[in-house]
Amino acid sequence: MKLAAFAAASLLSLAAAAAEPSGSAQPERGLAAGEAKSKGGQAAAAAQATAVIPVKGMHCGGCVGHVTEAVKKLEGVRSVDTDLDKAQATVVYDAAKVKPEQIVAAIASTGYEPGTPVLKK
Ligand SMILES: [Cu+2]
Q: 93 alpha carbon to ligand 1 midpoint, in Å?
């Protein structure tokens, strides 16, 4: 009984540590990221980038859906906001996993016309 409770408590604290990798429970991991970025704990966010890509040829919600789905399939893409009125797709992605050129290619593969990506900071 006591052992089981102890094991459960250990699992809980392990889960808590895993949920917060930037926390003090994992100083070794936080250190490397902190050295690289000089503001520790944001290693995951460090590679995040946003690109706004003009898309010509969309004329309805179906078009928006095609573009959005094609971009979402790419590994490393975190979110896609395709705007019909502005004729552009705003893509948040992991720059370590996917390049803007690949996003452009995915849009082109749907039959619409992607323009030059504008990177946001
Ligand atoms: Cu359409």
A: 25
